[in-house]
Design a protein that fits this description.
The structure holds 2 protein chains of 2 kinds. Helix content of chain A is about 0%, strand content about 55%. By secondary structure, chain A is mostly beta strands. Chain A starts with a strand and ends with a strand. Classes of the chains: A mainly beta, B mainly beta. At the A-B interface, β5, β9 and β10 of A face β4 and β5 of B.
Chain lengths: ~110, ~110
């Protein structure tokens, strides 16, 4: 298995809703990431988990809450989002620091209404 | 501050010809470089990478060249095919985890 799987593929949520994005990989990668990508922009790093511990938070607002239940799973909990948070949310994983096998999922297209 | 720059937002090439996508970087600590291909509403798909200890890496129709003294790398696609039409992102990293992406170059391969 050489994939990063993200669910759901599309999500529409209201500003008062609570929802979660899920990411799964079975490549034995020990680093997992959340990126946010707006249209016509490059992906921007949000969070990095290394060995199931949060190692980087790129000053992301608290309405985004990551969780790493185990080495294969990464969640992003969403609460009280704003319309400007609408974007493609990408999960990625890598073997470690070297960058080998840095693999992205196909993303969740989030629309906040 | 953009540490990885792709100065050509778009490129159009005829089928069968060579596509050359360029990327410049400013951080001399970057030691690993990657190219990704992206279709709309999909995640980036890894194409090819190169470590800073090399100056060339080849995989089928794709070759990446690295010129460390110029802080420049390029992706060559030969021969170009219509299915290669997509946005190509250059990315770089140092010993940290995060990838630094360029803004992308939209490649159009015409029949």
């Amino acid at each position: 298995d050489t994939e990063v799987t993200q669910t759901p593929k599309h999500l529409v949520m209201g500003m008062t809703n609570k929802k979660s994005l899920k990411c799964e990989q079975h490549m034995g990668h020990r680093a997992m990431y959340w990126y946010k990508q707006k249209a016509k922009k490059p992906p921007e790093l949000m969070f990095v988990y290394s060995y199931e511990k949060l190692s980087i938070n790129e000053s992301v607002p608290s309405r985004f809450s990551p969780e790493c239940p185990n080495s294969s799973l990464l969640n992003l909990h969403l609460h009280a989002l704003q319309p400007e948070d609408s974007a493609l949310y990408l999960c990625a994983s890598s073997q470690g620091l070297a960058g080998d096998g840095y693999t992205f999922g196909s993303g969740t297209r989030l629309t906040v209404v | 501050d953009q540490q990885v720059k792709q100065n050509s937002p778009s490129l159009s090439v005829q089928e069968g010809r060579i596509s050359i996508l360029n990327c410049d970087y400013t951080n001399s600590m970057f030691d690993y470089f990657l190219w990704y291909k992206k279709y709309p509403a999909e995640g980036p798909t890894f194409l090819i990478s190169i470590s800073s200890i090399k100056d060339k890496n080849e995989d089928g129709r794709f070759t990446v060249f690295l010129n460390k003294s110029a802080k420049h790398l390029s992706l060559h696609i030969v021969p170009s095919q219509p299915g290669d039409s997509a946005v190509y992102f250059c990315a770089a990293k140092n010993s940290g985890y995060a990838l630094n992406f360029g803004k992308g170059t939209s490649l159009l391969v015409t029949p």
